[in-house]
């Protein structure tokens, strides 16, 4: 196993997008745009932003 | 959001000037403390006509939070400030039974005015399809959130591009959710999010104990034997990584107060990785257990061939800020 010290690494974009596109407080209504309304078709972004519902189901079915 | 909601929002936007005037009236009436009141009036005067409002996070309104946002810049380089909500009853009339003791903590949204032309629906749709724009915006959003958590301030980060047409809409929407925010804020206070990613990392060089045996074989058979070993190495690594993932999840669960599983990372954005990502989890961990968590999770995977573990963070509690949407 190899370990890269965290301090030497910038935040990886994919980790950030996992959180900013699937996590964070979701507000519906009265927004300019909902992320869910966007295709995000390029560069494998579909894989990054798999539906929040699916992530929640995974968490519920996997033991802590 | 239903189509009707969207249509209503678009229709309402046409009458923006009237709403801005109403908002200024509202601000004049509210009894904010002097420091905040000045900020609000200045910003409304200067920015409301051409700007819309990008919201980054929800937090408790404290002097420390106000100081923390004072010099921050947002996704459009705009100054960041606190937009308070939740002080009055939703219709603006004071609750007759209200006393300072009974009042729940005042909340605020961390917001910044952004150019309407760059953050209207069409621009956002185009931007979210553009990796360069997406990365710059995500990093700037994260920088605002991280500046707050870096000072130990508990926040509920909002999802990327949470943008409203004006500040009144931010207030109204967030006010309607305050009963969700308070328990979530309580839960994340004193906690951080840590990421644990586990990769199957087949060892392509060393774990081959059989090269001498292969010497007696013809070229073709040696090739096939080598291929079988590599295949076995990949399968072994996958098995080892999934076993480790299960064990680490159990261990991490004892050190964390909550857990969310993201989908494993795939594709070009995953970058240069040691092998396939078999699990990609987030844990909510008490601040004073962060080093313990990191050390014990990494130690549990140490020396295991075919397994690579990464611990990321501390992050703001992005993955633990998701209350159920109110039923409408």
TrEMBL record, chain A:
Record keywords: Gas vesicle
UniProt-listed Pfam families: Gas_vesicle (PF00741)
Compartments where located: Gas vesicle
Single GO cellular component term: vesicle membrane
Keyword Cytoplasm applies: no
The organism's place on the tree of life at top rank: Bacteria
GO terms assigned for molecular function: structural molecule activity
Family statement: Belongs to the gas vesicle GvpA family.
Annotated protein name in UniProt: Gas vesicle protein
From TrEMBL, chain B:
Matches recorded under InterPro entries: GvpL/GvpF
Swiss-Prot/TrEMBL keywords: Gas vesicle
Presence of keyword Membrane: no
A cellular-component GO term for this protein: gas vesicle
Cell membrane recorded as keyword: no
Acidic residues composition bias: residue spans: 85-98
UniProt-annotated location(s): Gas vesicle
Pfam families: GvpL_GvpF
UniProt-annotated stretches for the region Disordered: 83-104
Family, similarity comment: Belongs to the gas vesicle GvpF/GvpL family.
Protein name: Gas vesicle protein
Organism of derivation: Streptomyces flaveus
């Amino acid at each position: 196993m190899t370990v890269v010290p965290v301090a030497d690494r910038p935040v990886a974009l994919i980790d950030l997008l996992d959180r900013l596109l699937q996590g964070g407080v979701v507000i519906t209504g009265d927004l300019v745009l909902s992320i869910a309304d966007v295709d995000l078709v390029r560069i494998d972004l579909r894989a990054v932003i798999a539906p929040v519902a699916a992530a929640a189901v995974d968490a519920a079915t996997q033991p802590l | 959001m239903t189509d009707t909601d969207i249509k209503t929002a678009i229709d309402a936007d046409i009458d923006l000037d009237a709403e801005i005037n109403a908002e200024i009236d509202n601000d004049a009436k509210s009894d904010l403390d002097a420091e905040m009141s000045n900020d609000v009036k200045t910003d409304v005067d200067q920015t409301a006509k051409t700007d819309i409002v990008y919201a980054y996070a929800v937090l408790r309104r404290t002097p420390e939070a106000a100081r923390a946002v004072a010099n921050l810049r947002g996704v459009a380089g705009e100054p960041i400030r606190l937009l308070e909500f939740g002080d009055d009853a939703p219709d603006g009339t004071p609750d007759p039974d209200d006393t300072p003791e009974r009042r729940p903590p005042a909340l605020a949204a961390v917001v910044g005015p952004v150019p309407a032309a760059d953050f209207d629906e069409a621009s956002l749709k185009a931007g979210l399809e553009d990796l360069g724009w997406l990365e710059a915006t995500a990093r700037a959003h994260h920088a605002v959130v991280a500046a707050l958590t870096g000072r130990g301030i508990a926040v509920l980060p909002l999802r990327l591009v949470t943008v409203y047409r004006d500040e009144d809409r931010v207030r109204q929407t967030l006010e309607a959710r305050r009963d969700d925010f308070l328990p979530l804020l309580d839960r994340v206070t004193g906690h951080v999010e840590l990421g644990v990613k586990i990769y199957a990392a087949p060892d392509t060089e060393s774990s081959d104990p059989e090269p001498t045996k292969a010497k007696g074989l013809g070229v073709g058979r040696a090739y096939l034997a080598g291929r079988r070993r590599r295949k076995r190495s990949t399968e072994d690594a996958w098995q080892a990584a999934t076993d480790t993932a299960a064990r680490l999840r159990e261990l991490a669960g004892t050190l964390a107060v909550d857990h969310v599983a993201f989908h494993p990372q795939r594709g070009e954005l995953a970058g240069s990785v040691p092998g396939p990502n078999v699990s990609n989890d987030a844990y909510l961990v008490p601040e004073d257990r962060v080093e313990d968590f990191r050390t014990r999770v990494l130690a549990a995977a140490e020396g295991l061939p075919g397994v690579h573990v990464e611990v990321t963070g501390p992050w703001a509690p992005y993955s633990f800020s998701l209350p159920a949407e109110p039923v409408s």
